[in-house]
Design brief:
The structure is a single chain. This protein has 334 residues and is mostly helical. The protein has one domain. Helices cover 75% and strands 0% of the residues. The protein is built from 12 helices and no strands. Helix 5 crosses helix 7 and helix 8 packs antiparallel against helix 9. The chain is globular and about 50 Å long.
């Protein structure tokens, strides 16, 4: 096992925020690819497959990548961590499935709030159970307050989208007979569950990184698992509904996978220093900042940027600071 030095909070947290910036860019690219192909699952397959190709190349060319590659099978064979940790990439595949299945019904705003709620709550649990490489972290009052503030801030930041997304969401749901509120139960549960599982994915990838000696190997294994799951799902979809449209020629449609390599790899690296909760909160802040930047610089039709968007994003940054504040030993500890 390779013990890399832990990063101080002042270094690790900005890195988590920076890695989160790639998430909305990836979402914009994959969304455009899905629309071009007429198939969200096919777009996810392309994204994961290109990410896997990038990680294979990096693993073979980079000295640390080759060293990590050589440690994967021994680590799994000797059970240095639970073998199912190697399947963490399947959680990413499930997240993409939940996104493609529910955004049209719920709208992007409600989907974002649902996933952030699940991820924030599970971040506390994963840290408390010690699933990540940072070990067990107590559920203190200040961390709970930070989580509540984060959920409230994200809800505020995306609130201008609710009105614009409601018509499309209700229109899609109406065709499914969604006059009964129970019809939206599954679409809401799926993104909450997907977000809830994301913290476990980060914890498992972080633990694997410690034993592989590099996040390159953990990211490679993550993409192998996720790609396999998505290819199976897409094959079933093709057998039932037929193939998607031909792949586009424009190169930028294929950048989603490499961007996924960035935030998955950095997440696996940072959880050892920051813990799963703070790493996740940092990425959430980066996600909101990236979304705000895209909406201002490269807006799409129907884009809404209001004061609540900006102020909610700033409050999210403040809530992360609250969650990382030191607290007197034993105070408000559960």
């Amino acid at each position: 096992m390779t013990h890399a030095p832990r990063l101080p909070l002042a270094v690790g947290l900005p890195m988590a925020v920076a890695s989160g910036l790639a998430i909305p860019v990836q979402g914009r690219i994959n969304g455009a690819l899905g629309a071009r192909l007429g198939d969200g699952i096919a777009a996810a397959v392309v994204s994961f497959s290109t990410g896997l190709i990038v990680m294979v190349v990096v693993s073979l060319l980079a000295p640390r990548g080759r060293a990590g590659l050589a440690r994967i099978l021994p680590a799994l064979r000797e059970r240095r961590f639970p073998p199912y940790y190697a399947l963490a990439g399947g959680i990413g595949a499930f997240f993409v499935f939940a996104q493609s299945f529910t955004v049209g019904l719920l709208g992007i705003a409600l989907f974002t709030v649902a996933t952030v709620t699940g991820q924030t709550l599970s971040g506390l649990l994963v840290d408390r159970l010690g699933i990540g490489p940072a070990g067990k972290k107590s559920v203190t009052g200040i961390r709970v307050i930070g989580c509540i503030l984060t959920i409230a801030a994200v809800s505020w930041a995306v609130s201008p989208r609710f009105a614009s997304g409601a018509a499309g969401a209700s229109g899609g749901a109406a065709g499914a007979g969604a006059a009964d509120p129970a019809a939206l139960l599954l679409p809401i549960i799926l993104p909450v569950l997907a977000g809830f599982l994301m913290s476990f994915q980060q914890g498992m990838n972080g633990t694997a990184t410690v034993h592989y000696g590099t996040p390159i190997a953990a990211t490679l294994v993550n993409f192998i698992a996720g790609t396999c799951v998505l290819w199976v799902a897409w094959s079933i979809k093709v057998a039932v509904a037929g193939p998607a449209n031909p792949l586009p020629a424009e190169w930028w449609y294929y950048l989603g996978g490499p961007m996924g390599c960035v935030f998955i790899g950095l997440g696996a690296l940072l959880v050892r220093s920051l813990g799963v909760l703070v790493t996740g909160l940092g990425m959430i802040a980066g996600q909101l900042l990236g979304s705000l930047g895209l909406d201002l610089l490269v807006p799409t039709p129907g884009t809404v940027v209001e004061a609540a968007t900006v102020l909610g994003t700033l409050l999210t940054l403040a809530s992360i600071v609250v969650a990382t504040l030191p607290w007197p030993r034993g105070a408000l500890r559960r």
